[in-house]
Amino acid sequence: AETPGRSTRPSLPAAVGVVLVAFMAMLPLLNLSLPGILPTPTYMPGTLALLSLCMVFAALALTLQAWWLLGLLEHAVADTVRYTREREQFGRTLISFQGVGFQLADMAVAVEALGELGKYTLWRVATVRDGSLVDAVALRSAALSAASTVLRGAHQLHGAMGFTDEVDVSWLSRASQMVRRLPGGAHRTAGRLVTLVGADGWA
After folding, report:
1. Per-residue pLDDT, 70
2. Sequence-distant (≥ 6) Cβ neighbours of residue 21 within 8 angstroms
3. Which ranges constitute the DSSP H helices of the chain?
4. Average pLDDT, integer, range 44-64
């Protein structure tokens, strides 16, 4: 019997993962090219083709994951700015305090910098087949750093309310947890980046 409130059907991420793995396994046999992502035919003998494709798709997955996190952080910054404009303490709005303004500036700069790096990394993944993984890992490392700056600042400026479902920051922070921890947290990502740079340098 099916447990009430819980579906027995496979989750969408799992189904997408199965399709991607099957597609990646078939590409070396099909000798296809994907404009903008794989500009040259994918056929190479043996496991070298599959390994190369795995690297490309890993870079693309990390890049798209960082872009999703970027959108979440932009929303968090906008919500925090709006809240500090509306919330008053000691007869003044929060945003009028110099310390609050500095913290909001740090959050905005982190998001803008991540956006620029995200554009560059997406271009690299779309135009450079080999060597784009190190750029994608670097983008993920920057995204995790930006997420720490933005979400920590958002919670601090919202105060206790930032941990309740009355404001979007609480939902955004919880939604980001899986992306910030998988496939690796900040320290593991930084370690992987050092390994990649040490092995291949910046392509």
Report:
1. 92
2. none
3. 12-30, 47-86, 98-127, 132-158, 168-181, 186-200
4. 67
Six-digit token string for 105: 């500036």
Confidence bin at 111 (pLDDT 50/70/90): very high
Q: Using alpha carbons only, what angle is made at residue 115 by residues 102 and 117, rounded to the nearest 5 degrees? A: 110
State how far the Cα of 155 lies from the Cα of 157, in Å rounded to an integer.
Answer: 6
Structure token digits, residue 154: 């958002």
SS3 35: coil
Contact 192, 184 (CB under 8 A): yes
Using the Cα atoms of residue 42, residue 45, residue 50 and residue 56 in order, give the sign of their dihedral. negative
Query: Can you give the pLDDT at residue 51?
Result: 57
Place of tokens 């996190």: 69
pLDDT digits (tens, 9 = 90+) for 130-154: 667 888 888 999 999 999 999 988 8
Q: Please report the sign of the dihedral spanned by the C-alpha atoms of residue 83, residue 86, residue 89, residue 92.
A: positive
Q: Which value, to the nearest 10 degrees, does the dihedral of the CA atoms of residues 139, 191, 14, 76 take?
A: -40
**Helical (H) or strand (E) element with 93:** strand 92-93
